[in-house]
Amino acid sequence: VSPLANNTSSLRPAHGSAEVIAEISAGLLAPSAYTSPKFLYDSLGSKLFEAICELPEYYPTRTEARIFSSYGDDMARVVGEGAALIDLGAGNCAKAAALFPILKPAQYVPVDISRDFLLGAVTQLQQRFPHIEMTALGLDFSSGFELPQHVQAGRRVFFYPGSSIGNFSPSQAVEFLRGLRANAGADGGLLIGVDLIKDHAVLDAAYDDALGVTAAFNLNMLRHLNHLIGADFDVSQWQHVAFFNAEESRIEMHLEAREPLTVSWQGGERDFARGERIHTEDSYKYTRQSFATLLERAGFATQSMWTDDKHWFAVIYARA
Ligand code: AVJ
């Protein structure tokens, strides 16, 4: 059985849909230009993100992995076996795969906007774990999505590691998590990774590394936009900017024009002054208490939390 659920590759246009073009245009034409961070992830973007996870400055992936390996058995007891594990933003599926031996899911449903990258990963994974029923969904889950009929209803465990919840504002996060809770089933829940507030220099370095991999990751969005909306961004005219905004408790990433320039795309055009920016990503940081409160607001009842010695990152299981 092919793990590919929405097998539409032959029907898909090479470029973005009219909806995607309208969404991106609206952001680029706003008084302060912005784009959704989901457009960071074409195939190259997904690979650059994998490289980011290897950087000494980018502590979240490594810290979270350490929490999983230290407390995995404890987590497995709390989560229970035989769930449908729904992996949001699965990417290369490595985090979930590492948990299969202890969580023993019956079904695995990885979801990722970077469809081709995801399918490559799942095809390999299905061979390593033939007894787990796998269904890959290549879609944007940020605005809600439907699970296929055959995904068991009673015990759905949403797996949302890596602190990707940080891409939502806190109020958007509550709304998104409410939707997950409503779909988890009576015995289901949410296993989620959250990045915690820490020394600002540590945060800044994690999003502006010495090698410039995060800069390449951010700038690659312009190449992706050229493809999606037929834009003519010249990457060399832009630079990566990232910093912790303490008032908002978030890392902000921007692309800043190095010189006055004009960008045109299908149905749009805009001038940028030197120093003008496109806001490309927010990555909200929480305290253990502020995130527990956010989960409560989303309707989750009981919570178990695991963290590292320095309290840099937290993994939480919240019961639906
Ligand atoms: C995948 C959203 C968790 O916010 O840390 C990494 C993305 N951006 N470096 C994060 C990201 C720049 C990452 N998430």
Automatic annotation (TrEMBL):
InterPro entries associated with the record = EgtD (IPR035094), EgtD_Methyltrsf_superfamily (IPR051128), MeTrfase_dom (IPR019257), MeTrfase_EgtD-like (IPR017804), SAM-dependent_MTases_sf (IPR029063)
All copies of the Histidine-specific methyltransferase SAM-dependent domain together span 22-319
Set out the biological process GO terms recorded for this chain's protein: methylation
Q: What is this protein called?
A: L-histidine N(Alpha)-methyltransferase
Q: Does the keyword Methyltransferase apply?
A: yes
- The keyword Transferase is annotated on this UniProt entry: yes
Q: What is its EC number?
A: 2.1.1.44
